[in-house]
Amino acid sequence: MIARRNRLIQYALLVVFGIIIVYPLIWLFLASFKTNDEIFGVANNILPANFSWKAYAAGWKGSGQFTYGDFFINTFKLVIPTVIFTVASSILVGYGFARFKFPMQNLLFSIMISTLMLPNAVIIIPRYILFKHLGWLDSYYPFIVPAIFACYPFFVFLMVQFFRGLPKELDESARLDGCNSFSILTRILLPLCKPAVFSVALFQFIWTWNDFFNSLIFINSIKKYTLMLGLRMSLDAQAAVNWDQVMAMAILTIVPSIVLFFFSQKYFVEGIATTGLKG
C-alpha cells in the first residue's frame, strides 16, 4: 500500500512538472488564434475567444515576395546536407581516433577537444574573414563545408566514446574473415552505432535548424533566408506586429524538430547514455 501511494505521488509530481514544462508551448499554440488585444489584454485568458486559422494562412505569405514555403525549402537545403556530412565525417574521424594508432594521436585529440572550450563569439570574426576571402558569404557553404571536414568536435568526441565501448574482438574476428578496416566499419561497427549516429544527427538537425546567429552573419539575401531569419523579418515587416501570425509561424517552425525527436527518442536516449558511460 505504501509503495503504491509513493508511486502515485511520483506520477502526480511528474504530471505537474510536465504541465509546467509544456505550458509555454500550449500558450504559444493557443496565442496563434488570438488577436493582439487578446494576447496583451488585462484578462489574458489562455483560451482564445474564437478559433480561426486565418493567422496561419496570412503568416504563411511572409513578406509577399517570399513565403514561408521558400524559407522552409531554404532551411532544408542548409540543414539536410549539414546533418548528412556531419554524421559521415564524425563517424570516420571518430573511428580513426578510437581504433588506430598514429603519430601525435593524443596531441591531436587533445587539440580537438580543446576547441570545445572556444565560444562561438570568439571564432566568428576569423571565420567570417576566411569565408569572405573564399567567396562563400551569402551561401550555405559556411555550414556545409565545415561539416564535411568534421569541424564539430563534440560529435567526433561522442563517436569516439561509442567506438571505444565496442569490443575490439569484433575487429579481430572480422579481419580473420578477410574484412579490411573500411569493411569492419561499415559491416560490423556501424550497425551497432545506431544510437550514437541518431544522437549526432538529431543534435545537429536541431542546432542547425534553430540557428539564428550564424545564419544572420553569413546569409544576406532574403531569397536564401532560413526560417529563423524569416521569423525575425516578420517582426520588421510592419510597424504594428501581428503577433498571432508570428506565433503561428513559430508553431510550424518547431514542428519538424518535435516530430523528429519523438521518432528517434529511443535511439537518442540510448546513445546519450552509452556514450556517457562507456569509455
TrEMBL record:
What is the top-level taxon of the source organism?
Answer: Bacteria
What residue intervals traverse the membrane? Answer: 12-30, 78-98, 107-129, 141-163, 184-207, 246-263
Compartment(s): Cell membrane
Residue intervals of the ABC transmembrane type-1 domain: 72-264
Which PROSITE patterns has this protein been placed in? ABC_TM1
**How does this protein sit in the membrane?**
Multi-pass membrane protein
> Which UniProt keywords are present, listed alphabetically?
Cell membrane, Membrane, Transmembrane, Transmembrane helix, Transport
Q: Which InterPro entries match?
A: MetI-like, MetI-like_sf
Q: Which PANTHER family match?
A: ABC TRANSPORTER PERMEASE PROTEIN MG189-RELATED-RELATED, ABC TRANSPORTER PERMEASE PROTEIN YESQ-RELATED
Q: Which family does it belong to?
A: Belongs to the binding-protein-dependent transport system permease family.
User: How is this protein named in the record?
Assistant: Carbohydrate ABC transporter permease
Q: Which organism is it from?
A: Paenibacillus hodogayensis
